Amino acid sequence: MTKHFLGDTAALLGRSLRHITRSVDTIITTTIMPIAMMLMFVYVFGGAINTGSGSSYVNYMLPGILLITIASGIAYTAYRLFMDMKSGIFERFQSMPIARSSVLWAHVLTSVLANLISLVVVVLVALLMGFRSGAGLLEWLAVAGILILFTLALTWIAVIPGLSAKTMEGASAFSYPLIFLPFLSSAFVPTTTMPGPVRAFAEHQPVTSIVNAIRALFAEQPVGTDVWIALAWCVGITIVAYLFAMVTYRRKIA
Question: Distance (Å, rounded) from C-alpha 164 to C-alpha 166?
Fold first, then answer.
């Protein structure tokens, strides 16, 4: 059964990746907005923001930009799922002897790979803008692991509207609140500068712990409990979103 699932997923993953390679503009579009935000915050607002971190502002805000890159990219997962639903390809898959969940996993893994490419592009631009990190291989691998888990979590959320939306716009519009969430966190300014209620929300939402953990890893500082809270959020969201996505999928193909 496992071999059957893995083979089916690999075959469908190849199909999804071919769609990506035929529309490279998808990845380009995904990276344009985060890079534009990074340029604006560093060169327009950066001089007026005191983070108290002692490092350059691009170093401070890059973790938040990476999360926005992922939130922007997963909208295309919902879009691709919606288009597959409307084209009737799911019905054709149902008539084939393939594992049902492999269809969704192929889209999810495609999202992870496409977002990794976008993240690499954003980091390269950040390096050109002055981002520097003394982090070693283990720290970079830890950052990559957190970003992959965060991508998985948001992608499984994206699967739900991708399967259930009535319009193409509705399938991708869900990502807007996710893109906005880093602005209500420690991504761009310290939470201590925020008003009471906003600060309370910012300090107890998942993006803040994820941003703090990545920032500490880049700066070779102790990550404290942030990394465990970040991992707990990512794993928890992934599990809940996966269960809801599978329920939605079964209802749609029943």
Answer: 7
